Amino acid sequence: MHPSAKTIVWTAAKFAVPVAIITWLGFFHIDWAQLSLQPKNYALLACALIVALCGVSLSFARWCMLVRCQGISLSMVEAFRISSICYLFNFISAGSVGGDLFKAIFLAKRRPGRRIEAVASVFVDRGVGLFGLVLLVAIAMWVADPPGSSDENRDQLGQIKLVAAVLVGVGTVVLSVLVFGGKGVDRLVRWGSRLRWVGPLIGKVGAPLRMFHRHPIAFFFAIVMSLGVHTLLVISMYLIAKSLYLDPPTLLDHFVIVPIGMLAAALPITPAGLGVYEAAIEWLYRIIPATKTTASGTLVALVFEIVKVVMAVIGTLFYWTANAEERESIEAAEHVETKSS
């Protein structure tokens, strides 16, 4: 198959999967007649958009802080501009990793002598974000202790709680070694850099990651900021549910439902997790609340996706007004993704 035809087929397939999932969910899991009878609160919808914007903006500020910890100069305005374009890119790449590639390429081009550090900042930002998400799941599961609506659901919730606890434990150990480890960790990195196959990679990436050893407070604040980001997104989702339905799951329920759905959407399956996120939220709306709700998780998740698209419009404006340096980085990222697909 010709490379251009292969790219077209692959792109079509990426978007066909979420469209099929969303169509199926919308047909079988949304009671449109019942929804039409529900009073709508558009003021809450507007608040949901504002809260979500605050959450995404906080994630942009987190990345800027982590970049500066690597010794790379980056203004907050520049960080918001690049991050906004990356947020747009997440909607045209499988999963939620497309924007990360552009960030890494942009910083590498801007600071040729600090390329490894640039890539490390993006890698750590993604890792801290995921750790904050898993941590929020674990906290919500233990605090809320959702009873579920059946014995089978309680068993599934128990498994989710166990997995979340294990992931938080492993993540805490890894981050603690990374940030607070002493000279022994540096010696381990040097030893690993001499290994036959993975040595070059460890040698190039290990040292930049260890730079956060000199910024433990900033690293701690990055985790706190991650919790803040996901908390604001949970609140945004809850406001959407309240604007559409009279009896949605409680805010505490949403602190369990939304982070788990986001973890599912983070898997590189569909563009921006479309379809996967809706399916996960629909399932969680049925098993988490102790009292059955008439709210459709599918519809609430779809409206949340619309809110995200509205936020991505800002990235579109920055994309159209990108300067030459940003255009070169965008083209390089598109070229890499085309080759990988």
UniProtKB/TrEMBL annotation:
A Gene Ontology cellular-component term: plasma membrane
Annotated InterPro entries: L-PG_synthase/AglD
TM spans (from-to): 12-30, 42-60, 80-102, 123-142, 162-181, 217-241, 256-277, 298-320
Superkingdom of the source species: Bacteria
Membrane topology qualifier: Multi-pass membrane protein
This protein's UniProt keywords: Cell membrane, Membrane, Transmembrane, Transmembrane helix
Principal location class: membrane
Subcellular location field: Cell membrane
PANTHER family (alphabetical): BLL5419 PROTEIN (PTHR40277:SF1)
Protein name according to UniProt: Uncharacterized protein
UniProt organism field: Novipirellula herctigrandis
